[in-house]
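Progress narrative, Year 2. Work on Flagellar biosynthetic protein FliR from Thermodesulforhabdus norvegica advanced from sequence curation to structure prediction during this period.
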Amino acid sequence: MLIRRRLSNVEVWYISINHVLTFLAIFLRVSILLFVLPFYRGTELPTSFKALLALFIALIFYIPLSSKIPPVNTNPIELASVVIGEMILGLIFAMTVLFFLGAFETAGDIISFQMGFGFARVADPVTGVQITLISRFFQIFASLLFFALNGHHFFIRALYTSFVKIPPGSFFESMEHLQLDRIISLSGLIFTLAFKIAAPIIIVLFISEIGMGLIVKFAPQINILVVSFALTIIVGILFAALSIGEWAQAIQDSFKELFLFIFKVLI
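Result:
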């Protein structure tokens, strides 16, 4: 914030170091969130672009927040607590999203294994590891739905609200309000949501395997081992195509739960 003083009939404008530190604290929380979120941390976006985006968002936030939140103290110990608190808050926001997206990737792994695509893997440009084709499909599908539902608008609004509710330097005083135990319990949601998404394909493929077992029992002359691989893939792809609408609804409901969770628990 610019401060004006008159010294010896000369107007002097200077920037308060406390307000500079407040802006840097806002920038730190925003940049941690942007650099960890899977939608922005991929190699497709240059690091310089992500840094400029974080700087722009922090500047937009700082203008109205400068009059609503107390400035950061220059005490070294308090500065260290501010840095640690802002990093943890940014990671908490990002990890909450990663828990939900991890459910979709886990569902893709389960479906790929059941369909026989467990070894058909592609490189994930975000993490650099090998993932299954179905998991990659879910990543792209969930990302498109996230932006279609204006999820990026929600996160900007939620992040701004978090600065009002938890100003820089007040993280450790707000730990009880954050309900960190509920955030940790989100990790169990990965498997619950993954099996909910993958359940239709698992059931259909299980029934098809029972049918092939009956064919072997009553018509042993049929070489079911050769037929089963192609049949499993065809049935899996067919019902996966039929389930896209249900998957879209499940992902949409999951994002709505995520948005409600962030507003109720985090801010």
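The chain has one domain: 2-266. The mean pLDDT is 78.
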